[in-house]
Amino acid sequence: MNQNRFFRNIALGIENLLLHKLRSVLTMLGVVFGVGSVVAMLSVGEGASQEAMDQIRKLGSTNIILTSVKPVDEDDRTAPRSFMSMSMYGLTYDDYERLRVSYPAVRQIAPVKLLRKESRLGSRSMELRVVGTSDAWFDLVQRELVAGRRLRASDEDQFNPVAVLTEFGARRLLATQSTIGQRVRIGGQAFEIVGIIKSESGQAGEMQVPDRDVDVYIPLRIARDYFGDTTTRIQAGSMSRERVELHQIIAQIDEMGNVEPTAAAIEQMLQRFHRRKSYEISVPLSLLRQAEATQRTFNIVLGSIAGISLLVGGIGIMNIMLASVTERTREIGIRRAIGAKRGQIITQFLIETIVLSTIGGLVGIALGVLTPMLITYFSGMPTVLTPLSIVLPMVISFVVGIVFGLYPAANAARVDPIIALRHE
Amino acid sequence: MTGPNGDIVRLDAARKIYRMGNQQVNALDGVTVAFTRGSFWAIMGASGSGKSTMMNIIGCLDRLSDGHYRLEGQDVGTLDDDQLSERRLRHIGFIFQSFNLIPQLTVQRNIELPLYYLGWQPEPSAARATELARRVGLEDRLHHRPTELSGGQMQRVAIARALANDPHLLLADEPTGNLDSATGEQIMKLLDALHREGKTIIMVTHEPHIAVHARSRLYMKDGRIDRIDES
Lengths: 424, 231
Ligand SMILES: Nc1ncnc2c1ncn2[C@@H]1O[C@H](COP(=O)(O)OP(=O)(O)O)[C@@H](O)[C@H]1O
Ligand SMILES: [Mg+2]
Prior knowledge:
The structure holds 2 protein chains of 2 kinds. Chain A is α+β, with helices and mostly antiparallel strands. Chain A has helices spanning 2-18, 21-58, 93-102, 136-140, 153-157, 167-173, 220-227, 256-273, 284-327, 329-338, 342-379, 387-414, 417-422, and strands at residues 63-68, 86-88, 106-121, 124-133, 145-148, 162-166, 183-186, 189-197, 203-204, 207-208, 216-219, 230-235, 238-243, 248-253, 279-282. Chain A has 2 domains: 2-55 and 290-421, no CATH class; 63-254, no CATH class. In chain A, a hairpin with a 2-residue loop joins strand 3 and strand 4 (124-133). By secondary structure, chain B is an alpha/beta fold. Chains A and B meet through helix 1, helix 10, helix 11 and helix 13 of A and helix 2 and helix 3 of B. Adenosine-5'-diphosphate (ADP) binds next to strand 1, strand 2 and helix 1 of chain B.
């Protein structure tokens, strides 16, 4: 019975609004666009942040990545331009050992040595990007195995000249099917190809995914023994030599809570052993935290814009409802004379406002869901709809109806029937 | 005079004072009168003599400044706003000079209005509205809007609406004031019939040929009762 009455009230409210279709639609527009833009912005924002966070997570949220960086003062122009000038910088084998041995929180650690070597398979010859590393690398940087096997600890111990190609490298070097077991020459040395892994391309922030430009992985000991640590570059007629032992060290920490303290401890250690800062420490977890903080700021900004647009929409509704009350003074007087209580008049006008704002909210949500879909369709930008980004604007538009409907409804209830009925 | 048990409306030393700035208008200036159940009254008098004010008081739309008003034995002065609404809803049917239909609603919806506030369900309301429309001869106009009707038809809709809650008391403030005399006569025939059915009718008019339909006449002057003709 009561519920019945509730639905009849709503039906009557809708009926009343339908008497002024154009006006009702125009009144709704503020809430439609307010809610629509909130839903759309939330889903675009959520999509962007999820994409950024996914990329950071790919780096491993428990990893610490150390990278060798050439110091700025080690510039060719400031150094004496002797024939055999050589710059030495970056992470060392000793750093790697210290990290491996003296940090209990480090669960696994992989060294990375980057080289460019002229390689040859049959008659084909080209420069390949080579990484000397250990089997741990394959644990830290998850890559799908396409064929064969990855590097093993025994390759290192037994000094096996084996190589694992990335898919990308394999495509560059050879187009044949039976890749596994083939022999290639890398930098004049013979290697056996034992496996192929998937390439991962992509970038997270300014940090390079370690194997982005890599063609082939070989055991570190082999790389060191065959090719040494010094590279010679001939540039614009002069020769420069560089000595870098390790280009990167990736350490995996046992649990999240230890990542940042360990990173700090490692930084202190490196400062002690390096005269100049020729390395960089990046912690994906910190990046993740930063991304989350950015997202929070973004959400606050979005929330404010949403609040303002809904406020404007609500004021629009209130304005029209106030006009409607004035225009319908006589109707109110008639209803009151017939026996309507003040509360029933309030209910009538409040329901009309809530129906307006809620229908506006529903249309706005439809608009706000459609827009990101179109954005994704046309620009490929990811967008994510969360339940909250739909429920929240819905609730807000309902509340807007109540808040901005109360004042006009109270005005309606204050109408004096005697005066209203005299009102021609 | 009739005994208190037979009175449906009873005013005792009723006063209604309007203050406008430092001017004071005694719209009702000490009125004592009783209307018995089933009577048919015409309230007459010059413009500004307090007829409408008395009707508003009797209709529970307004309160006295002083004195007492009893409706069916109950002192209305002690009631709050919601209770006054309740009296209007259950005991009183209003008929106005300017009809006061809601222009956006159909004839049926206008007639159903009191039933809506009485909490009736849609189906019985519709049945009752149809029955009342037939009663006033407008069953073929149920889905028209008031603006599509003539003045006489509008007033008949208003009468149907006033009857919807089956009130004992019908209050009509110049019901024929906006109608030509032929149409006015039709409306009066309806009121006569209602009186015969036992409704108490209090009607304001300044037209003698309308007033003759009533059994009793009360003349107002300057907020007071000038004289009463009872037949
Ligand atoms: N709301 C009001 N405010 C001030 N004066 C009023 C009001 N209503 C009526 N009056 C005054 O009260 C007196 C009686 O008015 P009313 O009852 O409408 O007269 P009638 O209906 O007999 O023409 C008039 O002098 C009128 O001006
Ligand atoms: Mg009058």
